[in-house]
Amino acid sequence: MRLRYLTLLSIVSAALTLTACETDLAPQALPEHDYFPLQSGHFVVYDVEETRYALNTNPVTQRYQLKELTGLAYLDAAKQTAYQLVRSRRGADDQPWLPDSLWTARLINNEAIRAENGQDIVKLIFPVNDFLIWNGNRHNTREADGYELRNAGQPYRVRATEFPETVTVVAQDDSTLIALDKRLEVYARQVGLIYKETARLSYCAESACLGKAKIEYGTRQIYRLREHGQE
Questions:
Q1: Would you tell me which of 18, 41, 150, 183 could form a disulfide with 171, CB atoms 3.0–4.6 Å apart?
Q2: Please, where are the H alpha helices in the chain?
Q3: Do 119 and 140 contact (CB within 8 A), yes or no?
Q4: Closest Cα to residue 177, out of 207, 199, 205?
């Protein structure tokens, strides 16, 4: 009986130690960090729609669900606290989740950083203020990429759900008679990313169709939040 008690005590002590270690690793949270929550077990599920356009063919659209689960905190190579983002994918509700990719995220000083496909990108700057501008590629070797923050603290609706406090990050929003280049993301407090749109489209430039936004080729990808919670 005493042996069983000591064994149980050891297990509980080990669990408490691991919890304390993870708590020690977690960076000090600020109210603004609610737009970029990093908490183990937090998950989001998106409905993703991808459409590809090509000359003389019908557009090809693919729809699927993407889940992102925040893992445990750890110290990266630079001794900075980071979290794994475990990404899974499925075609429909009745299909199993299959592994997709493993990204990471961290909060360093006033920056929210995600490592996407091996590249560190500054997704948000704190505190959030309208017209705040920064280089999203400041921590990688790519050419400078200007991000601008808009609509801080404003509501935003994704399908039937309205999120009362959001912020929009615009990385690109160029539209001409012959092309569209658009990249934006919307973040909500206590949820994170709720909407994402990326579009690179080329329009017909002939006189008969110029200015009519007739797509000749390109891609469009849209993420819409489906659900979120804690596991």
A1: 183
A2: 2-25
A3: yes
A4: 205
Pairing type for strands 133-135 and 146-158 reads: antiparallel
Instruction: Please give the structure tokens belonging to residue 80.
Output: 């900075």
The token pair that represents 199 in the structure block: 């579009």
CA dihedral 211, 216, 217, 222 (to 10 degrees): 60
Q: Going residue by residue through the chain (231 aa), what tens digit of pLDDT does each one get?
A: 444 433 433 433 443 344 444 445 555 556 679 999 999 999 999 999 999 999 889 999 999 999 999 999 999 888 999 999 999 999 999 999 999 999 999 999 899 999 998 899 999 999 999 999 999 999 999 999 999 999 999 999 999 999 999 999 999 888 888 899 999 999 999 999 999 999 999 998 888 888 888 899 999 999 999 999 999
Give the single-character DSSP code of 32.
Answer: G
Angstrom distances, CA of residue 128 to CA of 85, 111, 124, 186? 23, 10, 8, 13
Cα distances (Å, whole numbers) of residue 138 to 114, 121, 135, 159, 170: 12, 8, 5, 34, 16
Report the distance separating Cα 44 and Cα 39, nearest Å.
12
Three-class SS state of 180: strand
Q: Which amino acid is at 139?
A: H
CA distance 180 to 172: 10
- Nearest residue to 164 via CA among 196, 197, 186: 186
